[in-house]
Amino acid sequence: MNLFATTFRSTLARAFPEKTLFLRSDGETRFIRLTPFVQVAGISGCALVLCWTIVSSAMVVMHGFGSGTLYEQALRDQAIYESRLNKLAVERNVRAKEAADAYERLAAALEEISTIQAQLLRSEDRRRELEAGVDVMAGTLRKSMNERDEARSQSEALLAKLNDNAKGLGAETTEEELAATLGFLTAALAGVAQERDELQRTFDAAEDRLDEVAFEKRLEVERNERVFRQIEDAIETSLAPIKDMFAAVGLPTDSIIEQVRRRYSGQGGLLSPVVLSTSGETEEDPQLLRAGEVLEQLREAELFRVAVQSLPFGYPIRGVHRSTSGFGMRWGKMHRGHDWAGPTGTPILATGDGVVTFARRHTGYGKMIKIKHDFGFETRYAHLSRFRVKEGQRVSRGERIGDMGNTGNSTGTHLHYEIRTHGKAINPLIYIKAARDVF
Prior knowledge:
single chain, 8 helices, 14 strands
């Protein structure tokens, strides 16, 4: 061991001979002795520092390249998300415009139906008046003809009697009296004939007018039939996507529509019962019955509109945002809603008509709003930065109720949105996707 140490020291002394450094300062001279071990230690320290600097620089450069790649990827992802969101927003606006146009068409159809109904009633009244007038004229004509026939019979009887008693009359009656009697009978017969001719002309004119009214009614029936078909097609086109939307989310359509019918019964508008006439005869008119059927279809469309407006089919955010977490298991726990991230203050919207039942802080949820909807539905909007509604306030779908924030148990600015039916949480995207082709 001593031999090895001696050999190592001698080798080290040859490689790094001892050196002396002289330092002069303020008239004094100092020196520092650098032994082989000190030189080796200094060189080793410098080498370690150099190696550490090289490795650190390489790591920083590699991290910079990696960070730049991730940042660029994040920018590309953000651009893709924004493009998709813009497309969805455009599509949503188109669907909303189509729904508004459909509703306007329904309103125009209702107005057209009301006009047709009034025209039908006026036409029916005119037809009745004309029929009554014709009946009166026909009765008068029959009475006049009977009187004419009776007068003619009496005249013939008198003439026969005059012929049979011509000799006796020649002795007892003057020629002037006989001429006066015959003149009176002739004038009476002429008056009856004239009255008969006038009544016949009146009757012919009434028949011509009845033919004109019948022709006008046929034209009106054909025109109304075309209008009815157009209205029925518009109703079917408007209701088809709504019925598909109900089927997509598995809602009991018949039960919901019946609840709406009972709730709004007797409140007027399209939801009021259809009453076309108080006369039993008029209600049997095919056109009025067809109008009643179309009005009933419009009433059903209005029932669907009211039901859809009350259900949470809307989209809860307006503005730039991105989806960050869906419904289901997350980190070993059940996530009962859907999360979207966006800038602080992004508008949060009510997804359906309802009443605000909760608008304050809640443990974990932070600032949260609960809205109670019809048919046992409730929506929740959590982690808000600001409330824009109060408890007990009634809100409509699309109305701004709050701003996106980062309150409660939250790792960043986002909205946590829930839909619950009878207390049970369901996936909100089911309703959002089902309504995508309608609103």
